[in-house]
Amino acid sequence: MALDFTRRVGELAEAEFHHPLFITFGWGFATIELQTKKIKGLRENDFILAAKINEISKSLSDEGAN
To answer: How many CB atoms lie within 10 A of CB 19?
Structure first.
């Protein structure tokens, strides 16, 4: 499931033209770090992307529960 999650996050990032700084995953886990490099911090777009990433996580959890 972690591989599918990271693939979907990558597709989202490409569609949004806003990419995570790091995506790390392994067996059963994924870690995503968001940062806007220009200001070395977080911007509104980072929070929007994070909310969309949470939705991907929730949808995969719901699929796994069925």
So the answer is: 15
